[in-house]
């Protein structure tokens, strides 16, 4: 798991300040067009190109390969900045960074560097096709190649990606292949019309005898099977961590927009006895409560990101206890981010009042986005895991999905 000496090592505060400024410029552009794009509900080709042209797609690739060289903590903060402006694009860039982590953990050096160079030299955007609850793909063998057919759901970002990771059950083993998205037999279905996260291209796709070659199979974990389970399980933890960050980013954007509306449009309630809404103590109480809970969520998210990075860099030396402690912290961060994002995106209307529900203000988009994605992975199971530790002292262990039944 040590393919490059400078992988996710980070940049100086001064250099990172520059990248945050770049991210904020892209975020401002996304925010200014959010309502129009959300209502259009189209694949975000143009928006991905904004990320590409800004350099943000290559941000987490090492400098030795021409990338930005940020660490995972810094990459997650960038995803939060984008999420505050547009939850859909925040999810997509977070998934892109996450798939880079997957490529690194799962692939051998040649495979990982192939993807990294594609991101730098060609602006590739990464996606993954790995919903574990989907039925098995139909497999046909042609020598050492396997031809896969079937439908995949929640294929987030696949329609706008240039490279994708495909999870395939072969017998009862989940095997990962990484291919460019222009393979013959891949059809992207324009069928994502959900309540929120409408710009994530998260619909279905169909495989019709798509050829996967032995060299497409990611084999990095096979080089050290003794530590493979724990290192592979780091992928799940990073997935949870990116959820945490873009939930909190959406919450930041929601509270910021609500405060702007409040300052410019809210009038005092007749019974308040004050001349301006700002002097109403109930408004101040609600704003202070939401901002404090958000700050606590961000602090926990940042602590968890630093803990993840330490576990990631431990490589083959990662211990079960270290993994379990990370998983516990990630669970707690997920619970807090889930709850505070739903609370802020819902209760912001108590600050802004009835007139703010006019569709021209678009304040509903934050709740719609958070509510849609927080159903992706039931938070109750993360709470249960934390509670189990509190009552028994048992740390979480890697979760293993059972293979779906054969057709």
TrEMBL record:
Listed Gene3D superfamilies: Acyl-CoA dehydrogenase/oxidase, N-terminal domain, Butyryl-CoA Dehydrogenase, subunit A, domain 2, Butyryl-CoA Dehydrogenase, subunit A, domain 3
Domain Acyl-CoA dehydrogenase C-terminal: 242-377
Keywords: Oxidoreductase
Matching InterPro entries: Acyl-CoA_DH_C, Acyl-CoA_Oxase/DH_mid-dom_sf, AcylCo_DH-like_C, AcylCoA_DH/ox_N, AcylCoA_DH/ox_N_sf, AcylCoA_DH/oxidase_NM_dom_sf
GO biological process, one term: L-leucine catabolic process
Signal sequence range: none
Chain coiled-coil ranges: none
Acyl-CoA dehydrogenase/oxidase N-terminal domain mapped to chain residues: 17-102
Domain of life of the source: Bacteria
GO molecular function: 3-methylbutanoyl-CoA dehydrogenase activity; flavin adenine dinucleotide binding
Protein name: Acyl-CoA dehydrogenase
